[in-house]
Amino acid sequence: MPDSRGQGAVTSSSDLDYRGRDWYVDKAVSVLVFVGGISAIVLILGIFVFITREGVGFVFGPMEVWEFFTSPFWRPTSLSEPTYGILALMAGTASVTGLAMLIAVPFSLGAAIFIGEFATGRMRESLKVLVEMLAAIPSVVWGFIGLTIMNPLIIETFDVPIGLGVLNSGIILGLMAAPIMTTIAEDALKAVPDAYREAAEAMGATKWQVIFKVVLPAAKNGLMAAVLLGVGRGFGETMAVLMASGHSINLPTSVFDSVRALTATIAAELGEAPVGSEHYRALFTIGIFLFGITFIINLAADIFVRSGDKR
Amino acid sequence: MNRFFKSAPAVLFLLACGGGSGDRVVIQNRGSDTLVNVAQAWAERYAEVNPAVAVAVTGGGSGTGIAAMINGTVDIANASREMRESELEDALARGVSPVEHIVGFDALAVFLHPSNPIDAISRAELAQIYAEGGSFVSWTDLGVTVPGCSSGEIIRISRQNNSGTYAYFQEAVLLGDEFKLGSRDMNGSSEVVELVANTPCAIGYSGLAYASDHVKMPCVSGDEGSPCVTPSKESALDHSYPIARSLLMYTAGEPTGAIAEYMNWIKSTEGQCIILRLGYAPLSQVTCA
Fold this sequence. Notes:
Largest sheet of chain B: 8 strands, mixed
Helix content of chain B: 25-40%
Structural class of chain A: mainly alpha
Strand content of chain A: under 5%
CATH architecture of the largest domain in chain A: Orthogonal Bundle
CATH class of the largest domain in chain B: Alpha Beta
Number of domains of chain A: 2
CATH class of the largest domain in chain A: Mainly Alpha
Oligomer: heterodimer
């Protein structure tokens, strides 16, 4: 059959051109998968454009960049002279996330090593399910635990005036970040080929020597990614930190000091800031800043994972 | 988040009803979170009183409501503070002359932990505690030691900086001065009460309607020599309590038609009994069923 349409000729022959139910289902599913695949990119770009559009009027308008990052005075609704300084807020976020990581890293690495290298059978499966359930607790519940249970507990245990602060929110955030870190760290340990372990054991290494000298170094990049994703989780967490940190503009000097996080400030103030006002735009500028930090952290985690894959 | 959940059912209800009944008048009502519960109770009851009118209530804060009233997107703005000079100028510049309606009163109670021995506090003392430059940082500055608060430090509990309650406290107690930074700024009145109830060193403030049995409310005296008055609906109503605020609604110009009828109904005995039941003081003494 003479053909001037190239490849189309084959499918246009009458019996192959039949478009039945299967053909439409096939087409629909491939479109659905494609849309699903690019939706993350579209959404993230959309969010970025939105945040930037709302905040840009402040960045190029009344914002004094130096003051914004170095002044601890956040007084956006002052009647006489509003000041926009996020130093205390950055210190709050950093101190809470830092303490959370100090708590979460040993716990989640320990849990991952136990689940991945020691636990077997039922024990292993039930532990995995339990750790994942921990991740499913809503953050407002964690915050409420911080406000009503941890606060009096810290006051009594340490004899401090108030239990809302770096310690309280650090513990809560540590517990919230641990499940994610455990799951990813365990995956990283699992990715180490059994041949490595067998080789080490064949050379007479004890179980601990195998783990410390062989498995952990081999899984280094994956573990680093787990920690970084935990840090990202800490930076982004809002509700629990808002409730457990005391939400107080303060440069912390001890773990008992109340602090205020960047995310919590946006959450608390955005709802009542008149749309388009200087205050509203300043809050979105914090949003741009947070977006940038989270992006860098996730990118770093991704690079670590990739460099691990290559080897 | 709170206010969203509170107002969501009413909005959904109205959306559900709005579809069928063609020529219903819908009054848009937005603003103060302090007033959102009351505004919603009014709207629900009014739907029975006058089925031809639907009132859609949303929260968002006093400032949001006032801005929306100036823009013409809502008919009535709820506010727990008076309009600012800048807001008034903005309104006049757009050819809107806002009319203020007082719809009730709210006593701003001061909360202390039950173990705190203080029974009376003055406005000036509160300003020393809360205002920038104020000298009171320890409970011994007020001449007391609080059991369970060994450091003696006064833990100031406040509200987030754009709440109407915060703004009223700043105006009436701090006389317009700045707040000392470093207070614990809670995101809702009930969180203030919850935290004070659990913290012996703490002091906090919020609307009387949020008081619980787990906190202590000292009497408050105004200017020097004036008597110390316990916060209550009665003392807010007869204006003897020094830090009671008016709860306000603003309309763009004198209200007419359905809006005027609604405002009048709010000020009637039936409307005022609703505000009384929700813990605020009515405009005048009312007898409720």
